[in-house]
Structure formats: C-alpha cells, structure tokens
Design brief:
Elements: H1 2-22, H2 26-43, H3 45-91, H4 100-116, H5 121-127, H6 129-147, H7 162-173, H8 185-194, H9 200-215, H10 221-224
Helix pairs in contact: 1-2, 3-4, 3-5, 3-6, 6-7, 6-9
C-alpha cells in the first residue's frame, strides 16, 4: 500500500503536465490527474477507515468495559450474598429446624449457581469458608458421639468406659465452638491413641472427616444427614 501511495503521487504530479504540455490535451490531463488522485486515495483507504472508526471503536470498548465491570460487581454481590446465606444455613444446624439433607441440597444449589454466573474458585471458597467450618464442627460432634458409644448424641450410654469419657472430654476441650474451630483429624487420632479408644465406626468417621478437608466433599452424605 505504501508503494501504491507513492506511485499515485508521482503519477498525479508528472503524467498530467506531460499530457497537457506535450500533447495539448487538457481533458486527458485532468483525467490522468483524477486517476492518480484516486490511486493515492485507495492506498490510504484502510488507514482512513481505521481513523474514522477510531472514536467508534473507543466508545464500543468503553461500553464493553462498563458491561464487564457491571457483571463483575453483580458477581461479587452474588458471592457476598451466598456467603451470608451459607453461614446462616450451617448456623441453623445447631438450633434444629431444617433437615440436614435440605441444608446440603441448598448448599449445592448455591455453589452450582455461583459457578453458572462465572464465580472463580477463590470467590466460591471465600463464600463457603464458614460453611466448611460448620461442617467440621458436625464431624467433631459425630466422632465424639461414636467415641462415647452413643446411638444418639443426646442419649447417654451407661456402658461408656472411663477412657472413652476422657477421650470425648479432651476432644470437647479442643473445640472452639464460638469460632467454629474443631480439632483436626490428626488431633483427634492422637487423643484416641492416647486413650486406646478405637473401633471401625470411629475409623469410618475420622476417615470421612479427612476426606472432607482434603476434597471439600461429604463422602457418605446419606449417613451424614442422619446425624
């Protein structure tokens, strides 16, 4: 295009005067000048188009950026609302009311909705951080019940041994309920080893607790919801 531009310039400046002076043909001279000017114009057509579209493109980019910002703001609001909802949802577990199965279902629906609107993994992790803490407290409660050999947490087992009670008591001491901070599976295992308390059911739930922390998944949800 650059070569074509200079050809057009040279043609416009040189050819028309030659035709007009040497051949005395003014009409042909003007025609040649117009042809040269047209070639020059065509050589710069792409640049002219880009120049004329510049403001339009800038305006379009501005609107796209605004739309993207709006979507991101809505996404942030959705994440914040989801965090509050999930926190309330798991908090309600400790005062009865809605079934555990229903709470897990709502949690899954919220996370699915967040993914559908494009929330990042980091945003989702932040939204359910307190939910996860609440789940660890429930695992603590389940394991402690099993350690004491109770069929239900509220029903006392008269056959509980001294070691079982001691292990359960130490587990309770490590629980910071106000901040929903439960002892880790490793801490629980150390307590159980200390008091020589073991059973297949205890191993089952400690393993499930580990899996939840590692994979963010309640592996045996059908049994978890009964607790």
């Amino acid at each position: 295009m650059k070569l074509l531009f200079w050809i057009g310039i040279v043609f416009t400046l040189v050819v028309p005067p030659i035709i007009g002076v040497y051949f005395g043909d003014q009409s042909t001279s003007w025609a040649a000048a117009l042809c040269g000017a047209f070639v020059t114009f065509v050589s710069r057509l792409s640049e002219l188009a880009e120049l004329s579209l510049g403001p339009v493109k800038a305006k379009m980019k501005e609107k796209v950026d605004e739309a993207s910002a709006t979507i991101e703001q809505l996404r942030n609001v959705a994440v914040a609302n989801s965090e509050a909802t999930l926190t309330d949802l798991i908090a309600g577990n400790f005062i009865d009311g809605m079934s555990q199965a229903k709470r897990l279902q709502i949690h899954d629906n919220i996370i699915c909705a967040l993914r559908q609107i494009g929330a990042t993994d980091a945003q989702i992790e932040n939204a359910e951080k307190d939910w996860k803490k609440g789940i660890t407290v429930i695992y603590h409660r389940i394991i402690r019940r099993v350690v004491m050999g109770r069929e239900q947490a509220s029903v006392i087992n008269s056959k509980t041994t001294e070691n079982q009670n001691a292990a359960a008591s130490e587990m309770q001491d490590l629980l910071d309920f106000d901040n929903w901070m439960a002892p880790s599976p490793h801490q629980i295992e150390m307590i159980l080893k200390k008091y020589s308390v073991r059973s297949s059911e205890i191993n089952f739930w400690v393993s499930d607790y580990k899996h939840f922390l590692e994979c963010n998944e309640i592996r045996h949800g059908d049994q978890f919801v009964k607790e």
